[in-house]
Amino acid sequence: PAGSLSAKSQDVPISELVPTHRQQRTTIVINQALERFHYRKVSLNDDFAGQIFETYIDALDPNRSFFLQRDVERFKRNVRRLDDDLTRGKLDSAFEIFRLYRQRVDERVKYALSLLEEGFDFDRDESYRFDRSEAKRVKTRTELDEIWRKRVKNDWLGLLLSKKEEDEIPELLRKRYE
Q: How confident is the model at residue 37 (pLDDT cuts 50, 70, 90)?
């Protein structure tokens, strides 16, 4: 319709998510500017790199719904190298983390969509933790599947409570997840 706005995402294949020369150069310039001109005299060292790592992981997965504990532990092993890498404009670890994040998002969406075919038992007594930002990361995909089953069930229930017709709910959620 005229006057309506719609956003269309452009999916970049995971294999193409690699740092460009421009991004690498920009990283070097930003680091130099932080070290020379920031009012707090920031120094990119192991401690600051650890903070960058934690902030990056939390920004990608604030509700702890995508990464498994072992994913974060694997990436954390390289955090002491992060400051040296960033100083040289080497962004490989950041892009590796993001590629896995994209993979995990694709897996979760696929799983959520598969649940829409089954429907849900609302007579079952269970709870859903909406805010998982302070929760421990889960260790297994089975645990993650359970979180997502409850999430999709909660979304379904929310639409039921907002008076949506039950037969239109799967399509509404499919569009939301895709």
A: low
Residue 100 amino acid letter: L
CB of 35 closer than 8 Å to CB of 42: yes
DSSP SS3 for 50: helix
Answer whether 17's CB lies under 8 Å from 96's CB: no
Are 45 and 32 in contact by the 8 Å Cβ rule? The answer is: no
Q: Which amino acid is at 101?
A: Y
pLDDT by residue (tens digit) across 90-137? 888 999 999 999 999 999 999 999 999 888 999 999 999 999 999 999
Task: Say if residues 86 and 27 touch (Cβ distance below 8 Å).
Answer: yes
CA distance 157 to 155: 5
CA-closest candidate to residue 57, choices 43, 78, 40, 38: 78
Q: Determine if the pTM surpasses 0.70.
A: yes
Of 151, 152, 156, 155, the closest CA to residue 167 belongs to 156
Distance set, CA 78 to CA 46, 49, 108, 127 (Å): 11, 10, 26, 37
- Residue 46: what residue type? D
